[in-house]
Design brief:
Layout lengths: L2 E7 L2 E10 L4 H13 L4 E12 L1 H16 L3 E5 L10 H9 L6 E3 L2 H5 L27
Parallel strand pairs: 2-3, 3-4, 4-5
Antiparallel strand pairs: 1-2
């Protein structure tokens, strides 16, 4: 079973996701991200620290959310703690195994993701500032 709780923190919409992110539940996350964007909220944090399982459908929803926010000049940040969901973030391991973790700006907790705390070392900017030139290592979707 999946649950998604929404909270607003300044300019950021935080969607705290708990449970299993799979073929059956991933449309719920997709809908909640679309609702946030429809509400004019283009800075979204997906807190995945409570996700115990993620399959390819879940990964697809994360990539689709990144594309959606990128298309409206928004930003997507993921919370993937180094430890959590028993022993290490399951989603973190899945994204790394598939080679797509580099597409996301990853933070360890809500304060660092929303700017209320220190940014993690080496956090990649997803959407460059207007007029900025992306570095050669920047991936685009």
């Amino acid at each position: 079973m999946l649950s998604v709780e929404r909270a607003e923190q300044g300019a950021w919409t935080v969607l705290r996701i708990s449970g299993e992110l799979d073929l059956v539940s991933s449309p719920v996350v997709r809908r909640r991200v679309h609702e946030a964007v429809a509400d004019g909220r283009h800075q979204v944090v997906l807190d995945l620290s409570g996700v115990l399982f993620c399959d390819s459908s879940g990964v697809g929803v994360l990539i689709a959310a990144r594309r959606l926010l990128h298309s409206c000049r928004g930003r997507l940040r993921l919370i993937l703690p180094a430890r959590g969901a028993v022993e290490g973030s399951h989603v973190n391991r899945v994204l790394a195994a598939l080679g797509v973790r580099r597409l996301f700006e990853v933070h360890p907790d809500v304060p660092s993701a929303t700017g209320a705390g220190p940014a993690p070392a080496g956090a990649a900017e997803q959407a460059p500032a207007a007029g900025a030139v992306p570095s050669a290592g920047t991936a685009s979707a």
